[in-house]
Amino acid sequence: MEQNQQPQLNEHNKEEYPPMHTTEHIVNQTMVRLFGCGRAVSAHIEKKKSKLDFKLPQPLSDDEIRQVEETVNRVIQEHLPVTTQYITQAEARDRFDLGRLPQNASDTVRVVKVGDYDECLCIGRHVENTSEIGTFKIISHDYKDGILRLRFKLL
User: Fold this and answer.
1) Global model pTM greater than 0.70
2) Could you give the angle at the alpha carbon of 39 between the alpha carbons of 68 and 6, nearest 5°?
3) Are residues 155 and 130 in contact, defined by beta-carbon separation less than 8 angstroms?
4) Which helix (H) or strand (E) holds 89?
């Protein structure tokens, strides 16, 4: 794609709170790295508090929950740049699960990268650097029918 050319993306109807949305990406990658699960199967991301649901074969221990919190905060404190890149769906196919794209998704997709820690397809708003996020705090968690729900906020 030429440098001056503006990519054509699908309309986006959500107005995310950028620090919390970038945190969602970090939490997702942390869960993948620590527990080998996929990214969240559902998410509700808000400024005041958020929740993510992960499919796991068993609940996490309190020590594992603390490990998630510590890892996410360590990544945030690394002051990683948050960047975007535009690629075609064909280019994305080998790197990402395109299953969550809407049926009428544009051929151009946007990749959001959090330093070298995470990259995924995303059309939402983000901070420019993880130093803008603050402190991540898991406020509660529960496990039911193979789903771990993490509720969290930023301080």
Assistant:
1) yes
2) 115
3) no
4) helix 89-92
